[in-house]
Predict the structure.
Amino acid sequence: MQTRALGRPKSDPARDLRRDLLLASRQMLDEGGPTALSMREVARRTDCTHQAPYHYFENREAILAALVAEGFDALAVRLEEANDLLEPAGVRAALLASGAAYLGFALGQPGVFRIMFRPDVCDPAHFPAVQASGSRARAALDRLCAIVHGTQASAAWATILWAHVHGLACLLLDGPLALQFQTASQREEYLRAVGAQFADMVLAQATQ
């Protein structure tokens, strides 16, 4: 089945071709992973010349880096918004919202999520924007850890919180949980139950 080209016609001067290229690339990642992404196919899907993508991105790795940087920024925004629930709703609500935010991002952008933590696909050392956006997301996670365990919390607690939601996301995307639920509502109910149990365990440990 032929994929419909994204955005405005290539002759339209108002077209944001860079945005269209990234949208098409994200779609390709969702469909087939990083190996499915090529400059030629991105050009075809966006209905532009084969050379046009190179005006915006040096190569496919640069496209991947742009998507990863956007992914970390989007994840950071979600986590920051969840952390902001501390004042009106309390620590438990912030912890639950952070987990839901992380999982919501992973399930909503599976192709990008799968490569965000893979330096073999996108090495942050080569892309300062990825480093910056990744640091922003990590800062939001560290803030959550401080909310739950205090400003002197060990780095291990941040890893524990991250490992829980990241591992659960991987199980939902590519593991046995991917096929366990017949409906989205069943999955959401399961995640609420798991999140509540984890939050209770974390908060109980924090009070010891």
